[in-house]
Structure formats: structure tokens, C-alpha cells
């Protein structure tokens, strides 16, 4: 059963096309990862889904109902964790969660119980009476999540919930996504960290410049680049490297530099490692390390766009 159906969604800000005719269907029980670099259009899609922004064209069905006609029903039955923290500094952790849960329609003892459950779920039960100003970034993020899940929504949408937090809170959040899914919620998870979607998502949509450029399980996405390999060289200096000459080596598809690292995308079958190494020795550039790796979602993105996921 489909929980979300996005049809030809289109949104522009002035002349800037933020979402360019996107189609996505998400089924019950999925953890759907929306992966893309900053500015790709992820938050715009989420903000349209949660009713904060109006679309220019297209339609969205959530929980089998049209968003335009049933926004009240939809708002009550989904939980949105926004990219920008939406918590009140002047309310305690408990009061924050209770406030949001009441907006979602909970009342009385159910409101109280579910508020505590949500705080316990994100590991903040002991902090229920404290104010967010004493919290670390990761704790605030977790409180932000508690606010969106207390009413046990069928669909939970999380917009980059792990940006800029400590590894411990990050792991906690990733684990809680899995647990929420096991408890029956369908999840949409946006991020620009490919490791996260690899670990927790059942299906992934890769988005760039407002377009969905690839979609599938991580195995399906990696199959796009199975005939490719990535050669990474750590060198002592990159100033004398001529990118054209490297690109002219048989089999080489693209070359990228980053500080002392040279990333070469190449056909898997072509035996060109000797020629690549020769290029560096001929130009008196010493190689400190060289590794050749199988594709991951980063290489998928690189192959499809010619750019890295993170700059
Ligand atoms: P992401 O969440 O993937 O980083 P966004 O959806 O925030 O990307 O942004 C997509 C594009 O739309 C970007 O070019 C961004 O600058 C632009 N954009 C987003 N929100 C607004 C807004 N409120 N007004 C104008 N431009 C916006
Ligand atoms: Mg965003």
C-alpha cells in the first residue's frame, strides 16, 4: 500500500527551480532515503509535504488522501522533524513534547503517557524537567524528534536530523529510526551523508538540482556503476597535475582533486593502473598511498553528476 505518492511535483523560487517534476512513491513499511547535496531540493519537498510551502505544479497523496483537500487529517497523522530545530527554549523538555503532541490531537492521560514514552524513546526521560538551553546540540535534536513522534504517526519525515551533532547522538538517532520503523511507522529520511542511507534505508532516491536522478535499493543503485572502479591516490603535491593528461589515459572517466588526494573514476575492466602510476612518477610527484575501491553511493553520485556529494 502506498503511503506517499508525489506526482510531477514542481516548485520554483523566483527563477530558481528548487523541485523539478519529481515523482516518488513510498510504500508502507519503507525507510525511504532522500539523498542529495545541499541545495538539492530535499527540504523544499518536505516543507511542501508538511504544508509549510505551496507547490507550483503537481499533486501529493499522503496516507491515500490528497494533500490539497485533506491537510488537517494528514497533519494529524504524520510527524515531521524539521531541519531547523522547532523547540521552545522557555518550555521544559516535557512541556515541549506535550505541546506538540497536543497539537496533533492527544488529550488527557494519553497525552501525558505518550509524552513520557517519546522522551524515554529518545533517551531524555531523565531530562524531562530541564530546559533545552542546557542541552547539547544532539540532545536538542533528539527532543525535536520526540516532539514529532509522541502521537505515534503512521508516517515520520525527518529532514537532516544528524547534521552537526556528536557521533553518540548520531548513532542514537539512526538506531531510533530503525526502531520507529519496526514499530510500524513508514519513514522518509533526508540527508547528504551517504553512509546513513546505506545503513538505515530500504530504498533511496538520489536528488540533485531538484531532479530525482536515480532511485532504488542500495544494491540497485550500485549496479549503475558496477563496471567502474575508483582509484584514490594520496600524493605529496597536486600543483603540477595536468587533469587533461590524466583524463586521456585509457579507461579514465573523471578526475577529482581534494587537498592531497586524487580521485580517479575509471572503467573496471581497463588495466590502466600502471599508466596512472607512470604519469605521477614522470611528473616527479610521489605517491604516498594508492587504493582501488568498489563503488559506493558516493561513486554513484559522482558518476551520475560528475560532482561529489559533499564539497
Ligand atoms: P536541500 O534541503 O536539499 O539542501 P532546499 O530545498 O533547502 O535544498 O533548497 C533548494 C533550492 O531552493 C536551493 O537553491 C535554495 O537556495 C532554494 N530555496 C529554498 N528555500 C527557499 C526560499 N524560502 N526562498 C528562496 N529560495 C529558496
Ligand atoms: Mg535541507
Strand order of the largest sheet: 6-7-8-3-9-10
Strand content: 25-35%
Element pattern in H and E: EEEHEEHEHHHEHEHEEHEHEEHEH
By oligomeric state, this entry counts as: single chain
- Spatial gap, N to C terminus: 38 Å
CATH topology of the largest domain, anyone? Rossmann fold
Structural class: alpha/beta
Question: What would you say the CATH architecture of the largest domain is?
Answer: 3-Layer(aba) Sandwich
Rg measurement, Å: 23 Å
SS summary, helix count:
11
Outline the biggest β-sheet: 6 strands, mixed
Stretches where pLDDT is under 50 for at least 5 consecutive residues are none
- CATH classification, class level of the largest domain: Alpha Beta
Give the overall shape: elongated
Instruction: Indicate the percent of residues in helices.
Output: 25-40%
Overall pLDDT score: 93
Number of strands: 14
Ligands bound, unique: adenosine-5'-diphosphate, magnesium ion
Amino acid at each position: 500500500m502506498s503511503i506517499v505518492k508525489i506526482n510531477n511535483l514542481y516548485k520554483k523560487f523566483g527563477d530558481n527551480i528548487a523541485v523539478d517534476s519529481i515523482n516518488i512513491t513510498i510504500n508502507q513499511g519503507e525507510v525511504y532515503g532522500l539523498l542529495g547535496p545541499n541545495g538539492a531540493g530535499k527540504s523544499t519537498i518536505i516543507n511542501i509535504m508538511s504544508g509549510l510551502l505551496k507547490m507550483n505544479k503537481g499533486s501529493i497523496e499522503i496516507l491515500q488522501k490528497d494533500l490539497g483537500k485533506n491537510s488537517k487529517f494528514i497533519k494529524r497523522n504524520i510527524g515531521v522533524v524539521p531541519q531547523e530545530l522547532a523547540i521552545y527554549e522557555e518550555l521544559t523538555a516535557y512541556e515541549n513534547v506535550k505541546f506538540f503532541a497536543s497539537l496533533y490531537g492527544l488529550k488527557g492521560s494519553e497525552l501525558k503517557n505518550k509524552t513520557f514514552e517519546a522522551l524515554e524513546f529518545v533517551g531524555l526521560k531523565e531530562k524531562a524537567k530541564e530546559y533545552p538551553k542546557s542541552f547539547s546540540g544532539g540532545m536538542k535534536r533528539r527532543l525535536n524528534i520526540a516532539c514529532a513522534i509522541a502521537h505515534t504517526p503512521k508516517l515520520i519525515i525527518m529532514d537532516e536530523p544528524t547534521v552537526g551533532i556528536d557521533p553518540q547522538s548520531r548513532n542514537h538517532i539512526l538506531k531510533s529510526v530503525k526502531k520507529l520503523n519496526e514499530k510500524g511507522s513508514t519513514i522518509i529520511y533526508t540527508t547528504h551523508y551517504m553512509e546513513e542511507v546505506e545503513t538505515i534505508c530500504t530504498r533511496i532516491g538520489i536528488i540533485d538540482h531538484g531532479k530525482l536522478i536515480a532511485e532504488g535499493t542500495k544494491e540497485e543503485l550500485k549496479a549503475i556503476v558496477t563496471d567502474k572502479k575508483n582509484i584514490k591516490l594520496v600524493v605529496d603535491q597536486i600543483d603540477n597535475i595536468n587533469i587533461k593528461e590524466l583524463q586521456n589515459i585509457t579507461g579514465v572517466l573523471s578526475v577529482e582533486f581534494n587537498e592531497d588526494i586524487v580521485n580517479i573514476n575509471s572503467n573496471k575492466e581497463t588495466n590502466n593502473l600502471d599508466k596512472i602510476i607512470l604519469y605521477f612518477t614522470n611528473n616527479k610527484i610521489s605517491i604516498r598511498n594508492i587504493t582501488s575501491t568498489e563503488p559506493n553511493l558516493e561513486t554513484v553520485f559522482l558518476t551520475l553528476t560528475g560532482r561529489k556529494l559533499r564539497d
